[in-house]
From TrEMBL:
The keyword Membrane does not apply. Belongs to the type III secretion exporter family. The keyword Transport applies. Required for formation of the rod structure in the basal body of the flagellar apparatus. Together with FliI and FliH, may constitute the export apparatus of flagellin. It comes from Rheinheimera baltica. InterPro entries: T3SS_substrate_exporter (IPR006135), T3SS_substrate_exporter_C (IPR029025). Keywords: Bacterial flagellum protein export, Protein transport, Transport. It comes from the Bacteria. It holds the Pfam family Bac_export_2. This is Flagellar biosynthetic protein FlhB.
Length: 103
């Protein structure tokens, strides 16, 4: 990656505990962003890359909860990450048989 590209790379980490809106727990640019992503991956945290979402999240401060305008997109990302990990709600039914639960 060129120095120019690295300089503008951003990362924002969210923590969600299920009772309140997700909270900003880490954020950074350049090398710090790369470190945040590396630590997340080392701990099995799924990483989503989206320049527009990253730009919006980078405007928030550490400890801030995400604003209501981002609830749906963040909820969809959390739900999708659960599916990728093979986690489903207790009463979930695969009525359309679109997800192979045997893999």
């Amino acid at each position: 990656m060129t120095e120019d590209k690295k300089k503008y790379r951003t990362a924002t980490a969210l923590q969600y505990e299920g009772k309140h809106a997700p909270t900003i727990t880490a954020k950074g640019h350049g090398d710090l962003a790369d470190d945040i992503i590396a630590v997340a991956r080392e701990h099995g945290v799924l990483v989503h890359q989206d320049d527009q979402l990253s730009q919006l999240l980078s405007q928030l401060q550490l400890g801030d909860q995400i604003p209501p305008e981002l609830y749906i997109v963040i909820a969809e990302l959390i739900a999708f990450s659960y599916v990728l990990q093979g986690k489903f709600p207790e009463n979930w039914h695969n009525i359309h048989q679109r997800i192979d639960l045997k893999s």
